[in-house]
Amino acid sequence: MIKYALTCEHDHGFEGWFGSSADFDDQQTKGLLECPLCASKAVRKQIMAPAVAGTKRTALKDQPNPQMQAMMMQALGQIRRHVEENFDDVGDAFAREARAIHEGKAEQRGIYGQATPKEVRELVEDGVPVAPLPPEPPKKTEVN
User: How far apart are CA 131 and CA 46, in angstroms?
Assistant: First the structure.
């Protein structure tokens, strides 16, 4: 995986993860990249220094602090609960239903469910807006 620092035409900075440099180029050519702040499709790579393996001290310095990590996990849990409480669970029919909604053949509504990586890739390639649901937070009994 390659992490790129990205920016849009309005200088909004964000990052993206890609399987290879060619994946970035392919997604950019197809117009699949979009700024999460303004939805601009004029996305480009920022100048970056290469990641160089360092000492354990450097690796530990880059870890999020426990309070920040806990806050992020709580926010992701709230997003997941909101989706589960307010959207329709369509199970493994997600790809078919998302496409039908996008094409106006089904009622416009929020849905969630399961899809294979291939189905997700095809939805994205066809311009159907999809996003992964945040994972369930670990249960207190499963945490060390």
Answer: 24
